[in-house]
Amino acid sequence: MNTAVTIKGTNTQGVFSLADKSQTASAKGDIAMRMSDDGASAEAIVLPAESLADATLEIINGEYGYVYDLNSSTIITSFKSGYKYTYTIELDTRYPLSATATIANWLDVPGETATVSKDFKVYKPVGEGTLENPYTLEDARNVSPASGVWVKGFIAGYYTGNTVTSFTNDLTDSTKIKITSLALAESPGETIGAKTFPVSLPLGEIRDNLNLKTNPGNLGKEVKIKGKIGTYYGAMGIPDATAYVFIVDH
User: Fold this and answer.
1) Labelling 90: which of 125, 177, 196, 248 has CA 20 to 30 A away?
2) pLDDT in tens, 9-26
3) Is CATH 2.60.40.2630 the right assignment for the domain spanning 3-121?
4) How many Å apart are CA 133 and CA 125, to the nearest integer?
């Protein structure tokens, strides 16, 4: 079973004073811990931290994810220079995992033991984000952010405003059809805006060939679109499409 442990929201950058050997944190981030060969423990070197507020320990164990709030510990309340800190985490009382955060092997302090329940299920994409095996729309929503990847879906309509709630597939009045974006969906007949995937159409060939105002025949066609997955129209989408290929049934 594959296991990965990450310390999130802890100090990752700082300024060290040679004069008084003090350190001032300048940035927070994530630290991927090094797993043991048997996958039962993990360790990492961390910067000192006076407070563990907003710091968490994320454990991916197979298809499930677990999160332990480091600030909830009553024993380990900070990371001090020169100390070794040990957390023993029991997952669902069935999968024991010992995670060790250490900056030196000089001094041991009392460890923290906690039981953590499942927080989320790890999503496994169906596609690979390539032209040959593009992400599905569900994949795209779960792997975001990602750049330079291919996503496939059916052209289901467009948006009259700047949110997915303005979705429509009404092509009767071409003067109302926006040419700057389109909506992808898992099925060509989708009618619910919240289930669509907005795509920005940049000026040029992509807009000229995909927009529904001048290409109403594109409605219902399946297409692969390449670009960056991120927030667009208040939902997950592609704010900068860079290439496209229609999927033709043979």
Assistant:
1) 125
2) 999 988 877 777 677 778
3) yes
4) 11
